[in-house]
Design goal:
392 residues, seven-stranded mixed sheet, 32% helix, binds flavin-adenine dinucleotide
Amino acid sequence: MRYVITKETFRACPYDILIIGAGPAGLSTALHLAKVAPHLAKRTLVLEKARHPRPKLCAGGLTVDAEIILQRLGLDVNEIPCAWAESAHLHFEGRGLELRTPKRPALRIIRRDEFDHWLAQKVRQQGIEILENIHVSAVRPADGKVIVETDAGIFQARVVVGADGSNGIVRSCILPDDRLHSARLLEALSKPGQSSGHHSSSAYFDFFCVPNGIAGYTWDFPTQLNGQPMRCWGIFDNNLLADSPRPPLRSQLAEEMQRCGYSLAESELKGHPIRWFNPFARFSVPGVLLAGDAAGSDPLFGEGISMALGYGCLAAHTIQSAFEHGDFGFQGYRRRILCSSLGQTLILRTLFTYVLYTFRWRWFQRLVWHFLHPLVKLAGWLLVINWGKRLK
Ligand SMILES: Cc1cc2nc3c(=O)[nH]c(=O)nc-3n(C[C@H](O)[C@H](O)[C@H](O)COP(=O)(O)OP(=O)(O)OC[C@H]3O[C@@H](n4cnc5c(N)ncnc54)[C@H](O)[C@@H]3O)c2cc1C
């Protein structure tokens, strides 16, 4: 069924809930609605500007929390291809600590075109329609409904979920004056080579660039492209040190790749921002909720897939309770986020961000990554991961 709704006919729109964006946040919202309120799922429509499988710049590192949320939805992520990192190494200048997970590899690495396409198929199997190649251009809450303007006409619904990513239109329409913090990320794929220092089945994060004014790290993950093993390289800078002079991100990534025997010149470099989570920000207005990168994601590592899946759970429960009580003001959504295990991990990661990157001195970074291993492991285990199973 395909609805192309014109200005004249939009009042006939049979949907109560419109989800803008079919990435992990939007698709998780749809899947959680199917689970907690199947009667509402039938009145839900997802609008997506691309067509799955669509390219998405992302290293594809899937943490254990993402897997827990998927398992609770009854989904088996083993259905799609992946590469495994047996261990994750957090380094400063080539040495540091190694993280392993009991009885399983430390990190699953998926390709986002495959992962998002798979999730979209699961949403369709629940009877929820996804309209692709529909570009949303404006969102306007008005008189107890929300008007959504697209290149295929005008839609209206009781509830709109803005799950349209870091550069999304929904947040800029509903909260145009909000202050934004964004992180910069660059990524390049390369063929696996003879690496000096890096093991082929491990993931590496190196914070050597922090004293240079880059509030972040370079990464080197195993990945696969059409079944062929590849390496995914990248650099993350959350812009916290933007006031001081910084070298270009590209040169820092090239330096690290060269140290490991790779050449950036042989790879295509692409970039995309991530919007930071801000506990003081607004996450909704009457009739409209934000989820995933549109709401704000991890400023510490730039991890966002598990967060997007977690936001979907919170958004779906909020929508279910709004229909139950007939109140679409969504005043409680911010509190629900901040009190949830997702909100708490995001708050803690924001605090850690200021400690780790503001104290940019070489001696401090060496102290953290070379000497304080038990403390870093404990903090990570207790505060940074393991929030997925507590999410309600
Ligand atoms: C280089 C890079 C590497 C990363 N690596 C990792 C990693 O290893 N692990 C990890 O957990 N996270 C990683 N992230 C973060 C992760 O990619 C994001 O946090 C995640 O994609 C957020 O999901 P989302 O659903 O909120 O947004 P998105 O995945 O951006 O999905 C938004 C969807 O909305 C659609 N859309 C946008 N605008 C409109 C519109 N106007 N109308 C209709 N549809 C629209 C888009 O086409 C898209 O499908 C990385 C990010 C980058 C940039």
